[in-house]
Amino acid sequence: MRAVIQRVTRASVTVDGTVVGEITRPGLVALVGVTHDDGPTQVATMARKIAELRILRDERSATEAGAPVLVVSQFTLYGSTRKGRRPSWVAAAPGPVAEPLVAAVVTDLRARGLEVATGVFGAMMEVELVGDGPVTVIVEA
């Protein structure tokens, strides 16, 4: 499991002209990708890292700051550009495998008491965010 996590002042996801998920105060956007051999261990590790990474202002974590998180599924994080000009998506898990794992990350984050907004799995999404810093990290689980 792989995520790109950005510190933001606000962010939203729109599908077909409708805002489906948003955070309106400082927090994190987590773009989450799943590969074929991911499972419960990777879900737990990813949720813990998203919740506990000390990348908010004053070196606080989302848990410490009570900051919201916007989770967006992102299969393209497993795109390979090693050959040619067209990315290969073979390392990305198919939807039936990836969707429940991304949902499990969301469930785990909520169980930790975090406010979590989401996109819509598999939809064409417009993601808007205002980066804070900017601070962007890549997390592997």
What does this structure look like?
The protein has 141 residues and is an alpha/beta fold. Helix 1 crosses helix 3. 37% of the residues are buried. The model has no long low-confidence stretch (mean pLDDT 97).
What is the gist of this entry?
Helix content is 24%, strand content 35%. It has three helices and six strands, in the order E-E-E-H-H-E-H-E-E. Strands 1, 2, 3, 4, 5 and 6 form a six-stranded mixed sheet that branches.
Itemize the secondary structure elements and their pairings:
Elements: E1 2-15, E2 18-23, E3 27-33, H1 40-52, H2 62-65, E4 69-73, H3 95-111, E5 116-118, E6 126-140
Parallel strand pairs: 3-4, 4-5
Antiparallel strand pairs: 1-2, 1-3, 1-6
Helix pairs in contact: 1-3
pLDDT average, as an integer? 97
Helix percentage: 10-25%
- Supply the number of helical segments: 3
Report, as a whole number of angstroms, the end-to-end distance: 5 Å
Sheet with most strands? 6 strands, mixed
The strand count comes to 6
What order do the SSEs take from the amino end to the carboxyl end, as H and E?
EEEHHEHEE
- Show unreliable segments: none
Query: Which shape, going by the Cα principal axes?
Result: globular
